[in-house]
Specification:
The complex is a heterodimer of chains A (262) and B (181).
Chain A: H1 9-13, H2 15-20, H3 32-36, H4 119-123, H5 131-134, H6 139-166, H7 172-209, H8 236-241
Chain B: E1 25-27, E2 36-41, H1 47-58, E3 62-70, E4 75-76, E5 89-90, E6 95-102, H2 120-137, H3 147-162, H4 176-179
Antiparallel strand pairs in B: 1-2, 2-6, 3-6, 4-5
The chains are: A mainly alpha (262), B alpha+beta (181).
């Protein structure tokens, strides 16, 4: 039997005595000393236990993302908890949201605004633009066409993403075919712009050696970039001897042929 | 179509990008409210990039963006290549997703009632068949039990024992009969 101190709480409150009068829920006799004694417990482990770092933050443990609700130290001065709006749990009683017909995200869908285009719709396309057809277009048109292609690719990728979510259906082959046409157009645009840049670069390099061209001319000040020299026309043999890339302009008498560039 | 405002509601960057070569994918998110939208963006994209892209390309204004990068599983070989490439283990490029809070709500169009236009039933059946035959190609393929054959054999044996059928030797002289199971 464990010796009990005279000020032991269990002894004073008579808990030990009260427990004996209980009928069926009596603990076994070998556990009686544990119930009676209220001696200070010492932990079995001697390692210092880890505590959560207390830095005195008044809003500690409060998180909106984790739905903890306001903490004990959070004071709602403008509104009482009873005045807070309650969520409508019944889905039928909720207000239905109407999408704006002019919403920008409709750009990710087809004209009919269905969730997915059918394979028959996807296959319904022509061929891409060719380099020859795009050469006559200016930068604004080419840039606009590029963005039309980009948005169509986004539309197709959105379809493929939705198809992946639903699973097990046709549409991959048709979408891939459509994308190939778009990539062909984009490649043609890139090719035209590259050729244009090369032509400009060649002209610039030729102009650097050319005496009749002034690359530093300021058109706003009225300076001429091309000032032809007033000399008698050179003979054909002399013109062919020239090592520079510059070729002399045709004689004034000769009529210019049709435009080489369409 | 609503016209784009002359001035963006946020500070626009100075870097101009022409002829972009990437795609931004919109996803259906039944679990998120209508004011949210989820996009898959290039891995180098930032939240500011997406805000700028949505405003200038689609005239969509947003209130906030959240992003996360999803790592892909390690795979063997190229999934697009029908020929198996064993032991070429690698981790494909991660995907970056961004969830956006829209100023105006957007509800996705309803799913079609039946997917017959996309031939869904036939594709499902063919996938089930392929899976069944694929099991036979696995290393444990010879342990796969053909329940139909077992049932048929049991019925034939029962018929023979009961006398309903009489055993006859096979009459065909083709080599195939030796190889069939």
């Amino acid at each position: 039997m464990v010796t009990m101190h005279c000020t032991s709480r269990a002894l004073l409150t008579g808990a030990f005595g009260a427990a004996l009068h209980r009928s069926s829920t009596l603990p076994p006799s070998f556990l009686v000393p544990c119930l009676a004694s209220k001696q200070p417990a010492s932990p079995f482990s001697t390692t210092t236990p880890l505590h959560a770092r207390k830095d005195g933050n008044p809003s500690g443990g409060v998180s909106a993302l984790r739905h903890t609700g306001p903490g004990k130290r959070q004071k709602l001065r403008s509104i009482t908890p009873s005045q807070l709006p309650q969520p409508v749990r019944d889905p039928e009683r909720r207000t239905s949201i109407v999408t704006d017909p002019d919403h920008g995200l409709w750009g990710f869908f087809n004209k009919e605004r269905t969730s997915m285009p059918t394979p028959m719709d996807l296959v319904n396309h022509g061929r891409g633009w060719k380099t020859q057809e795009l050469r006559g277009k200016d930068w604004e048109d080419l840039h606009r066409l590029w963005w039309v292609c980009v948005k169509e690719v986004n539309r197709l990728q959105t379809f493929l993403g939705e198809k992946r979510r639903v699973g097990s259906m046709y549409g991959d082959f048709e979408a891939e075919g459509r994308m190939k046409v778009i990539y062909a157009t984009q490649n043609a645009i890139r090719e035209v712009l590259t050729q244009r840049f090369y032509a400009w670069e060649n002209a610039r390099v030729a102009a650097m050696d050319d005496e009749e061209v002034n690359l530093y001319a300021d058109p706003e000040k009225g300076e001429q970039a091309y000032v032809p020299r007033e000399e008698p026309e050179q003979s054909e043999a002399e013109a062919n001897e020239g090592t520079s890339l510059y070729s002399p302009p045709p004689p004034q008498g000769m009529s210019r042929g049709p435009e080489a560039r369409i | 179509m609503a016209t784009t405002a002359a001035i963006a509601p946020f500070r626009v960057g100075l870097k101009e990008l022409y002829l972009p070569d990437f795609s931004v994918i919109l996803h259906r998110t039944p679990g998120l409210p209508a004011h949210n939208a989820k996009f898959t963006v290039p891995l180098w994209f930032s939240k500011l990039d997406l805000r700028d892209y949505l405003y200038h390309a689609y005239n969509v204004r947003i209130l906030s963006v959240r992003s996360y990068v999803k790592q892909q599983r390690i795979i063997e070989g190229d999934p697009k290549n029908p020929r198996p490439q064993p032991n070429r283990w690698h981790r494909p490029r991660a995907h970056k997703h961004m969830i956006v809070e829209l100023e105006q709500p957007f509800v996705w169009p309803e799913e079609p009632e039946d997917y017959s236009a996309w031939n869904r039933e036939e594709v499902k059946d063919s996938e089930a068949e392929q899976k069944k035959y694929g099991e036979l190609m696995q290393p444990m393929g010879d342990a796969v039990v053909n329940e139909e054959r077992r049932k048929s054999m049991r019925e034939q044996a029962k018929a023979l024992l009961e006398g309903r059928l009489k055993w006859k030797p096979t009459t065909s002289r083709s080599v195939g009969s030796m190889l069939s199971r």
